[in-house]
Amino acid sequence: MTPFELVEPHTLREAAGLLASAEVRPLAGGTAVMLMMKMGVLRPARLVSLRAVEKRYSEIAAAGGELRIGALATLSALERSPLVARAAPVIAQTLRMLANVRVRNVATVGGHLAHADPHMDLPPVLIALGARVSIIDPAGGRTLPLGELYTGYLETTLGRNELVAEVTVPAQGSRRAAYLKCTTRSADDWPALGVAVVLEADGALVRDARVVISAATDTPTRLAAAENALRGARVDEAVLRRAGDAAASEAAVIGDQHGSAAYKRELLRVCLARAVRAVLDEQ
Amino acid sequence: MLGALTKDLGVAVRTIRFKLNGEPVSAEVPPHWNLVELLQNRFGLTGARESCGQGLCGCCTVLVDGAAVSGCLYLALLVDGAEVMTIEHQAAGGGLDAVQKAFIEAGAFQCGFCTPGFVLMTRQLLDENPDPTEDDIRHYLSGNLCRCGAYPEIIEAVKLAARMRKAER
Ligand SMILES: Cc1cc2nc3c(=O)[nH]c(=O)nc-3n(C[C@H](O)[C@H](O)[C@H](O)COP(=O)(O)OP(=O)(O)OC[C@H]3O[C@@H](n4cnc5c(N)ncnc54)[C@H](O)[C@@H]3O)c2cc1C
Ligand code: FES
Ligand code: FES
């Protein structure tokens, strides 16, 4: 790694104010930043550590049917939180398949969301649940649906001096959810496809559906045609096939070393059906 | 050498203070060192060693404020003010603990390069879950790799350590 200067401001807003130049990079858990610096793809002159900012940005709270998760909360804190287990069990289930104990002990929710690697597991799940992300800058801030944060591979709408401050997730309530991660080489490899499904259903009758995929596309992507195929339908083999075909034709699937585009489209058909069945079987 | 290099580049070496295996210590650290470099270069502790360098294998496991981290992905400067514990930490009395004894008893290593990480992670697992199922063990240790492939013996060792800890209580 090339040398750099480390600064540790005491407020998140102050941190945002230190990000003016392209040579400066925020550092949360550092698990992605350290890897990028070791690979030489990131050579910052200065890192702004967020670990000394206000404690409230590490907190997880539940109020008004929503979870509020501070950007500096670790993935382990999320995994162990009884509030998360109660309000959105699919998050805790997803965390079990995410990285390993040591990475989860250090990695933060804000770093996880801002990194914008489409292979990451929480973005599709949180987008499917309807999460919103709050962003802070030196003067004010803004809030947007999490899905609108992502613009491309490792690219977000975050301005240079903006930081993720918090993510708000509506509780699952009567909604049931599942996340399916499909790896094609080893279990701990980056996935070829991630599928998050959130359903409002009475038995096999789907009242509302949200489907978000990751890894196979450049950004986590909501699949409206697949959702339409499920919404109002009584799920059987034919409905699942229609939803799978809709998903495979609407998603901008990209081939890579985890599988060709054609292979991943087939995976999508199969995994979407499995994810929907997993949700309905759970009822 | 690195000290000279960073001075040339105009980046300040910083003095940090922390607790290392129970002892208050301080060290001069170039900002880009990771925790493994700090432990090896300043304290001669080689139990945490870098292998994959990417967070995947657990050979560099260190406990920072009681939580296991990959030393290879942890900036050394960030342990300023923290409590750091490595495999070299000796329990009061100095002997081996149940996990270490169980690894020897089960023959859970060949070359031993991965063993410090497995031992530290096993202690964490048993602190959190004193009676883990085989599935729990495999899941918790999925971020630790053993190139010698001693996995069957490692899993036996963890089960044995759980029994030994229970008997000690
Ligand atoms: C061994 C290993 C295995 C992994 N396996 C998985 C896996 O199975 N599934 C998965 O989803 N992920 C996996 N990951 C990726 C991991 O989830 C991310 O590295 C981690 O979540 C990033 O969080 P962090 O706090 O460490 O971010 P950092 O490394 O600190 O930062 C990541 C990026 O976000 C920026 N940033 C940080 N905080 C903020 C903020 N508050 N606002 C704006 N920008 C910010 C940084 O500048 C950087 O660009 C793995 C990583 C490793 C090392
Ligand atoms: S060397 Fe750090 S996890 Fe492999
Ligand atoms: S004993 Fe050799 S790597 Fe595990």
Largest sheet of chain B: 5 strands, mixed
Tally of DSSP β-strands of chain B? 5
**How big is the Rg of chain A?**
19 Å
Helical run tally of chain B = 6
Write down the secondary-structure element order of chain B: HEEHEEEHHHH
Domain module tally of chain A: 3
The helix fraction of chain B, in percent, is 25-40%
Identify the CATH class of the largest domain in chain A: Alpha Beta
Second-tier CATH architecture of the largest domain in chain A: 2-Layer Sandwich
| Strand-residue proportion of chain B | 5-15%
**How many domains make up the coordinates of chain B?**
2
Question: Which ligands are bound?
Answer: flavin-adenine dinucleotide, FE2/S2 (inorganic) cluster
CATH H-level superfamily of the largest domain in chain B? Beta-grasp domain
Question: Biggest interface pair, residues each?
Answer: A-B, 26 and 33 residues
Shape of chain B: globular
What is the overall shape of chain A? globular
Q: Remind me, CATH topology of the largest domain in chain B?
A: Ubiquitin-like (UB roll)
Give the rounded overall mean pLDDT of chain B: 93
The mean pLDDT of chain A is 96
Query: What gyration radius of chain B follows from the Cα positions, in whole Å?
Result: 17 Å
The sequence of SSEs of chain A as H and E is: EHEHEEEHHHHHHEEEEEEEEEHHH
Give the secondary structure arrangement, pairings included:
The complex is a heterodimer of chains A (283) and B (169).
Chain A: E1 5-7, H1 12-17, E2 24-27, H2 31-39, E3 46-49, E4 60-63, E5 66-70, H3 75-80, H4 82-87, H5 89-96, H6 101-106, H7 109-115, H8 122-129, E6 132-136, E7 141-145, E8 150-152, E9 155-156, E10 163-170, E11 176-182, E12 193-202, E13 205-214, E14 221-222, H9 224-230, H10 237-250, H11 261-281
Parallel strand pairs in A: 1-3, 2-3
Antiparallel strand pairs in A: 4-5, 5-10, 6-7, 6-10, 8-9, 11-12, 12-13, 13-14
Chain B: H1 2-8, E1 14-20, E2 23-29, H2 35-43, E3 61-64, E4 67-70, E5 83-85, H3 98-106, H4 115-128, H5 134-140, H6 151-168
Parallel strand pairs in B: 1-5
Antiparallel strand pairs in B: 1-2, 3-4, 3-5
Helix pairs in contact in B: 3-6
The structure holds flavin-adenine dinucleotide (FAD) and FE2/S2 (inorganic) cluster (2 copies).
